[in-house]
Structures are given as C-alpha cells and as structure tokens.
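Good morning,

Attaching, inline, the backbone tokens for the sequence recovery test we're adding to the shared suite. The designed sequence is right after.
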C-alpha cells in the first residue's frame, strides 16, 4: 500500500496530508474565488486576481470593523467623561476672585453694561475712558458672581485700557487700584493712592486704597493709620461734594464706619 504523499501545511509548515493539517487543523483543500474562479491557497483571505474577499473573510472583516468601532465609541465616551470630570473639579476647586471691600461699579453703567438692557456694545467704537469703565464694571460683576474666568480674562484688558487714557482723574485711578488689588498687586494700588493724594491732598480715595491694601498685606499699623487719616479728612472732603464721592457713597460709608470703630 502506497502512503499518501504529504505537503507542507500553508498555515504552520508542518508535513500534512488529507483534508486538514493534523498539527494546526488548517484546511488543505483547494479553494476557488467565488467571483473569478481563480485557484486560491487554503489560507488566502482575498483573491490574488480580482481582490474579492474569500469565504468568511468579508463577514469576519465586518465583525472586526464593528468591534473596532465599538471600541472607539467606548474610548471616546470615556474620554469625554474624564474631561468633563476634570473641568468640574477645576471649576469647583478654583478659588473665587476676591472682591476688594472698596469695589463698586460707580455710575459708569448704562446701556450694554453688565446686567443692563440691550446687546453688549462694541467697545472698539468707544473712547478709551468708556472702554475702561465698561471693562471695570464687567469685572466687578463677574467677581461678585464668583466667575474667576471672566475676571482673569478681562482684568488685563481693563488695565490696558487704563494705560491708554489721555487724561486721568481720581475716579479712574481708584478703579485701577481696585483692579490691581483684585489681581494681587497691592504695591501698584498703593502707588495710585500716592498719586491721588499728591494731586488732591486729603482725597478720601487715597486712604481707602491704603487701608484696603493694608488689609490685603495684613499690616494692622498701616490700616490703622489709613483709617485715622480718612476720619480726619472726612468732614472737609464730604463737604466738597466731589462727584466721585457720590458715585462711591456705599464704599465711603463702609470705610467711615470701620474707621469710627
């Protein structure tokens, strides 16, 4: 009896005969392309002549593609959840902007101001002073709402608008000092207080800025001195009826009560 000749298995290379490899189980039967009838190897997944998927290759590919898509969808959803969690934690843990006790918007509001009616104005069409006042009001509103992102975004813009003013008065310098204090720069605020008092000796804003900066830097001696000077100049200054005093009356009254205590 003549032994059946063996041939190398196309899958594992072991000597094999019959219909299946005894080592790995791969089929040894000849196959033909369902499209062009070309002879195919037992392990071919695509026809070498026409490129048609062979047998279960198409279904396997579709299943694999579906599996890949499912994996990508799952990974994408997981990434979105992770990013959302990070944003939530950062927002929840971020400290709220500190609003100086001396801060209030004054009377520079109006149409388009934060909280006011109408659409936001185009600040590029405003004068430098109008632009500065609008930005200052927006920052104060954002700070009161604990919106750190808005405060950080607009404070540099407001200070830039202040630097572009063609003339300065005590009210503008006071607002700029508030921004510097809110940004954590008491030295810049104190410099503005010195300028206010040099131009208008006894001006109440100078002492309010000094006192608030002393609170920020935890300097009780400087705070007591600012309150004493404020109280000493208050009668004459309040009688002068400066318009900026009227605009910031709540802040002045609060500082006066603290000085009297």
């Amino acid at each position: 009896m003549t032994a059946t000749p063996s041939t190398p298995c196309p899958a594992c290379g072991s000597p094999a005969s019959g219909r299946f490899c005894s080592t790995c189980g791969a089929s040894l039967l000849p196959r033909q392309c369902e499209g062009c009838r070309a002879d195919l190897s037992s392990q071919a997944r695509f026809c070498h002549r026409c490129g048609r998927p062979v047998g279960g290759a198409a279904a396997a590919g579709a299943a694999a593609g579906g599996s890949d898509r499912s994996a990508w969808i799952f990974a994408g959803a997981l990434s979105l959840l992770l990013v959302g969690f990070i944003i939530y934690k950062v927002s929840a843990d971020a400290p709220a902007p500190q609003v100086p006790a001396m801060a209030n918007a004054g009377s520079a509001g109006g149409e388009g101001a934060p909280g006011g009616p109408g659409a936001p104005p185009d600040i590029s069409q405003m004068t430098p002073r109008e632009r500065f006042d609008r930005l200052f009001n927006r920052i104060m509103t954002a700070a009161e709402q604990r919106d750190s992102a808005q405060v950080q975004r607009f404070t540099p813009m407001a200070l830039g608008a202040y630097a572009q003013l063609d003339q300065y008065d005590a009210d503008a310098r006071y607002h700029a000092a508030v921004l510097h204090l809110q940004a954590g720069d008491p030295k810049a605020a104190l410099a503005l207080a010195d300028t206010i008092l040099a131009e208008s000796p006894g001006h109440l804003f100078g002492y309010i800025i000094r006192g608030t900066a002393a609170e920020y830097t935890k300097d009780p001696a400087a705070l007591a001195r600012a309150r004493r000077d404020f109280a000493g100049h208050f009668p004459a200054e309040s009688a002068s009826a400066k318009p900026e005093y009227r605009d910031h009356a709540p802040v002045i009254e609060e500082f006066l009560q603290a000085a009297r205590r």
